[in-house]
Amino acid sequence: MSRLHQFTTAGHAPARNPDLFREQMARLFSVGLAISSPDQPFHTQVMGYSGRHLRFAALRFTPHTTSSTHVGQRDSRLLLSMHKEGVAVVQQDGRESRIEPGDMFLIDPARPFSIEAGEVVAHSVYLEPGVLRSVVPELDTLTARAIRSTEGAGAVFRGLLDALFAQADRLQEPAADRMADALSHALSAALCSLDGDQPPTTRLRAMHRQRILRYLRENLRNHDLDAAQVAAAVQLSTRYVYELFEQDGQPLMKWIWSSRLERCRNDLASPALASRAIGEIAYFWGFNDVAHFSRAFRQRFGTSPRAFRAGHERLAAGGTSS
Question: Would the pTM of this model clear 0.85, i.e. be above it?
Answer without folding.
Answer: no
